[in-house]
Amino acid sequence: MSTKKIGFVIQHINALGGTERAACAVMDALAPTMDIHLIEVRSRGPAPFPLATSITTHGLFDRHVSLLNSSPRLVHRLACEIRALKIDTLIVVEATHALYAVPAARLAGCRCIVWEHFNIGTDVGRRKRRWGRRVAARFAEDIVVLTARDAARWHSDLAPHAALHIIPNAAPAITSRPYDITSRRVMALGRLTDQKGFERLLAAWACVERDPRGAGWSLEIHGDGPMRDHLIELSRQLSRVAIHPATIDAAGQLETAGLLAASSRYEGLPMVLLEAMAHSVPCVAFDCETGPAEILGAEEGGILVPEGNVPALAESLLALMNDPARREVLSQGARKRARMFGAQTVSEMWHRLLIDERNVCAQEIRC
Prior knowledge:
- By secondary structure, the chain is of the alpha/beta class.
- The chain has helices spanning 18-30, 71-85, 98-108, 127-139, 148-158, 198-210, 228-235, 250-254, 271-278, 292-296, 310-321, 324-340, 343-356; strands spanning 5-10, 35-42, 56-61, 89-93, 111-115, 142-145, 163-166, 185-189, 218-222, 241-244, 259-262, 283-286, 302-305.
- The strands form 2 sheets. Strands 3-2-1-4-5-6-7 form a 7-stranded parallel beta sheet, sandwiched between helices. It has a 6-stranded parallel beta sheet with strand order 10-9-8-11-12-13, sandwiched between helices.
- Helix 1 (18-30) crosses helix 13 (343-356).
């Protein structure tokens, strides 16, 4: 049996986001048994996450191109690349790219899987994402989403002709390092954008600093993005907050964290929660759509707070700060939940989808 040739098309791989991390993890897991090709619309440099040396990278353009205005060129260039590489299956990372990648795959005669990382209720203000989802639903062979809740919305909102599969992101390897019960560091990691809601976290932190239960605890936010200056200005009113640049070493930061705070307005399946749980760090997260509830389950690895309830976020943080025994219980629960999202489990789901070419991955990790 010949080795499967799989192409992954993405805008570029040189970013510290959860999408890029998840894509690298899947490509790396598939590389030992498949011929993996990474196709970037325009390269900005190497992947910041581990990638097998056997994975070859190809760039379609050497300058910026518009996904809408340059659509015919994108379709043509990608179709030629698919034919030249003799790709069997093209995996489109993010539904926005379905606008040109699905037609290119059909033109080249290869199977097309659209892998969406946002929940269907979110378009990040981009009509092309909504259009891309419609193209994927009508013309792709398969669509991969991250949660059962999102799959249900795809069925009800778009009635896709494509087969729908639920494959979650994979958690990193579980660390052998024990949870540091003495730590007084609250960590938050992510792009400094409206999506991540860090201004809501700072509002909650103001309550923490006024409460004696929060004495000795500090908040560290790691990330880059357009809201950096605004968040720094807000943090000047607080005494125990530091905002650091994005870090490639999230694992190193989480090793000595006491808690992780997640204040997102919306997600797909946030990698930062999976990373925290792999390090046994209890989490406090807004119950946004989708991701935190699927990852934390019935509050096994942390506390779910009603979406947007800033006082409840502050109170949940304070309650855990003042209760080391509960933090220890939640730490053990976090490790248990992380095992359910193990890389082996997730890579097997991708293997079945790519090899069997049947809807055998429509399953979920239950809470």
